[in-house]
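Figure-free illustration: sequence to structure, shown twice.
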Amino acid sequence: MWGGVMDGEVVKRELLAKMRVGRGEWDEAIRLAAELVDLEARGESGWSVKDLVAHVATYEGWMAMLLNAGGPNIPHVVDVMTQDERNAWVFEQNRGRAVEDVLVSSEAAFRELVAAVEAISAEDLVAVGRFEWAGRKPVCELIPRESYLHYEDHLREIRGRIGKRR
C-alpha cells in the first residue's frame, strides 16, 4: 500500500487523510440514499442500506477496539467464524435496530477509529508484528480494509439504489 520502508509519520498522515476523504464519500452516499430510498428496503444482495451501514460500523468499531487494546487480541465470539459467518452474525445483531440508531453508531464508530489511529504511535502503526491479532502485517495495512476500502466495497450497491431513484 505504501511500499518500501515506511515513514510512520507520513503513513499516519496519509492514512488519516484517506480515511476522512473516504468517510466523506460514504456519508454523502448515505445522505443521498436517506433522501431517495427507504434505508430499510432490502436490495438484490438481501441487505438494506441500513444493514450495510451497520456492517461497516461494526468492523470500524472492532478495529478501534483492537487498536485501543494496545496489542493483545480481544477474544470475541466471531474469532472462530469464517468471513461469511461473521458477516451473517453482524447482520443478525443489527437487523432489529432503528435506522437512526445505526446512523448515530456509525458516526461514533468512525470517530472512535480516527481517535484510535491518532493515538497510536507512528512506529507502532508501521511495525511488523507489533499487534498479535495483525499477524505479520503492520496495522497500517489492515486499517484501510475496515474504513475507506470497506466503504468502497459497498458504495457501488448504495449508489446503484440512488441511481434507480433519480
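We now fold a second protein in the same way, so the two outputs can be compared directly.
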Amino acid sequence: MKVGVSQDPLTSAVRLAIAGNAIDLGPENAVALEDLRQTIFQTFSEPLYGNLEGFRRSVAAAGCILYLADNAGEIVFDRLLIERLPMERITLAVRGHPVINDATMADAEAAGLHRLVTVIDNGSDAPGTMPDDCSTEFREVFEKADIIIAKGQGNYETLSDVPEKMFFLLKVKCPVIASRVALNTGAHAILPSGF
C-alpha cells in the first residue's frame, strides 16, 4: 500500500502507524515477514475507532505538534504518518534511555526522522511518558504543544489523565485498557484525551 496514492493519505498513514503499534511483541520476540504483511493488510479492514476527523482538524490548526514515539520497530511506521503532517511544526520525542524496546534517538536516526523533524529525547527511562520524570527541555515542549500525538498503550496508560490536547494512536492490547476505553481487545483506535 502506497500512502501517497491512496484516496485519503492521512487516514492510510494513521492506520499504518497503528499497524506498527499492533506488531509490537516485546523486546525478545521476532516478527515473521508474513505476519507483518498480514497485520498491515488487516489494519486496512479493521474498524478505526475514535475521532479521526477531530485529529485531522486539530493537526491542521496546530502551530506546535509533539509526537511521542513508542517502540523502536514501529518508528518506521510513524515516519509514514509524520510525512503526512506539517513536518515544520513537529517535534518528535523518543525515550532518553533504552527501556524494554522503546524508541531512542538512535532509532529515530536509523529511520531518518532527524532529517525531517526536530527530534529530542525525553530524558527518561520509564515506559510510557511521565512528564515529571522527564527533562526540562521535554517538559517545555510538552507544555507549549498545541496538540500531542501519543503512540502506544504505554503512553495511554501514563498520559490519559493529562488534560492536554492529546490524541492516542494504539491497538488496545489488554482487557484493562479495553474496559477503560469501552472497546474490545484488539481494537485499533485514535482516541482524544478524555475518551
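Summary for the second example: Residues 3-192 form a domain with the Rossmann fold fold (CATH 3.40.50.10880).
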